[in-house]
Amino acid sequence: MADDHKYYTRAGAHTVPARHFIVEAIRSKRNQSKPKLIHLFRLKPNHEQILQLGILALTDALAIKVNIQFSPIPESLKDIPDVFPIEITLINRDNPFFFDVSFFSGSDESFGNEITLKLEYYDLLLNKYEEETVIGVKNSTPPLFIGDTQHSKTLKAIESIEKALKESNSNTVYKTRYNVEAPIIIEDPFAYVADLLPDLLSEMSKDIVENPLIREFIIRSKKSIYNSNRNNDILEYYFEDHDNLRNKIRILENCKLVYNITYNNVDRFVITEHLLEKLTG
Asked: Residues near 207 by Cβ (< 8 Å), separated by ≥ 6?
């Protein structure tokens, strides 16, 4: 500034008073050339039960040799005291630094609200900056979730299950009240199917005794063509040998003695170890 309280700039071969907006632009740029760091709490992306503390740059200037320290060290971080002070090579707008500090639940107690955050850093000219700020999670943390997040979808699914269970219980009461026969609970499924399917179970028992390591079988017509896999031995049962074969297998499924693994358009099933034990016993 000259004696007349004006700033002068060169304009060609002349020196002229700078207009106000030019002075303000230069002043603003000077301030932005200095690094300025702030802190921010957030929920960890894709892991929202974790609370993170971030150190971010407010200006475009680089902050280098950043030193981060707490006083006192929060309860949630006392198990790793050797980590502090944390030293970061640089922080700028494109490279903020976030680190886990606590679980979100109970963070008010585990991290605290009267913690002094100490920052020490340098600019590119090695000018040193020191800041101390009292921080805490109270009134500083974001909501656990906002909008239709995965959490809300999970909650809706749980509510849907709860509603279905209530309706199921209601239906059970209705059936009992009006003397409608309740579902049959089969205490011994094998004894039950043995009376219904003696011929099929007899053939299966013989096959398993002869082939003790085979668990897989198919059902098909003898007129159909089946290209077997040399590396996968299976048993075969035919519609021509057993009336209502498909329904008989369905009974075994309902009793959880076999389960369906159909693929390649072939009705394919696996014998459970429980059924195998009964058939060979």
From this structure: 214, 235
- Cα–Cα distance measured from residue 222 to residue 204, given in angstroms and rounded to the nearest whole number: 17
Beta-strand relationship, 63-71 and 86-91: antiparallel
Give the integer Cα–Cα distance in Å for 247 and 261: 16
Dihedral (CA of 228, 230, 235, 240) sign: positive
Q: What's 82's DSSP letter?
A: G
Query: What integer pLDDT is reported at residue 60 of this predicted model?
Result: 85
End-to-end CA distance of the chain, in Å? 106
Fill in the amino acid letter for 68.
I
Instruction: Indicate if the alpha-carbon torsion angle 79, 82, 85, 86 is positive or negative.
Output: negative
Q: What is the pLDDT of residue 230?
A: 78
What tokens does 144 get? 């656990």
Return the number of other C-beta atoms located less than 10 Å from residue 252's C-beta: 23
pTM of the model: 0.43
CA angle 218, 221, 224 (to 5 degrees): 95
Does 215 score more than 70 pLDDT? yes
